[in-house]
Design goal:
This protein is α/β, with parallel strands linked by helices. The protein is built from 14 helices and 13 strands. Helix 1 crosses helix 2, helix 1 crosses helix 7 and helix 1 packs across helix 14. The chain is globular, with a radius of gyration of 21 Å. The relative contact order is 0.15.
Amino acid sequence: MKKIGFLLNHYDVHQVPHIVPYAFELSRLYDEAQVAILCSSREEADFARAIGECYGPHKCSIEMLDVPSWVRLIDLFVSKVAFARKKFVLSHNVGRLAQLDVLVVPEMTSLQLRKYPEFAGVKMIRTSHGAGDRPGGSLDVRINQFDLALLPGRKYAEALVEMGYLDAQKAVVAGYPKLEAMERFGIERKQLFDNGRPTVIYNPHHQASQSSWPRFGRAVLDYFYQSNDYNLIFAPHVLLFKRPWGKGHSFPGKYKSNDHVLIDLGSMSSIDMTYLRSADIYLGDVSSQVYEFLEEPRPCVFLNAHGVDWRDDPHYRQWRFGPVIDDVAKLDEALKEAVERHGEYKPVQVEWFEYTFERSQHETAAERGARVIAKLAGLAGEQGG
């Protein structure tokens, strides 16, 4: 019996659908896999459990990691500056995690486990939790410290190897299980407004150095509150307004939802693709969620808030999917252009969606990833095989 753990250790649940589908399929396909989803919060565990109900009979256990009450109490204040609890969870549970044969994680912080001698025999696999083009993110030189990286498509595999960030034999293209998981979860397009207007989703990133929120956010909201032509879903990255003392982002209390503006700073609908599937037009900056939005090609507009010379920069490929503006005064014109000229932008949207997300008619991304994990763990053939 091989012990394989899937770690969820964050301040929100946005990473859950990127990793747990692998766990459910692994437990279903391999009798010799003892699979545990290890969570640092009840919210992560509840979301994982809900997704698991969509995967039929599986043998995963969903377990809570040990986080002392005093840590949670202190973290109520510390988390407004930094996400320190994540590192404490790792150090406090290293003995438990060291009992695994393989640990699968969706982020880089877990690499700190490598410094503990008792963890030396555990293999580590990194999954993605997004698929954007921005600097940083999954394009991180530390990824080579993992034994394998499960990647959403050729875009990342080729870029990481070409940049020298990842050895070719460690780069495994599995696909993007979140899309499949949310399909099973029953997330469909919803009519969120009852006025016949097209709906724009504004989705600024949380990294201040790349986000449009600090410079343009309030002006964008003001534009839509005054608009008679559009509805707005304001659904930023769920981390944008966390760590307010450290990052300095706070949401002005004057902005409230009304009959044509929906404000959501981080509910499940901003994570499970409800808003992305329900909007008609995407407005953003560098968030990878634009690729999830383009599951169905639709008009896009991008805000260049930092004066980036982006046209030949590979970190801004997604800005070829629609008009790019550097002034909110140009937003009205850009929205109209994105719709009227969408036929010109659509081919590159389709091309880069396919290049970003590997898809197969014969197996799901979760199944492909599960087989890769099983091979690294040294599991025998699939059950019944």
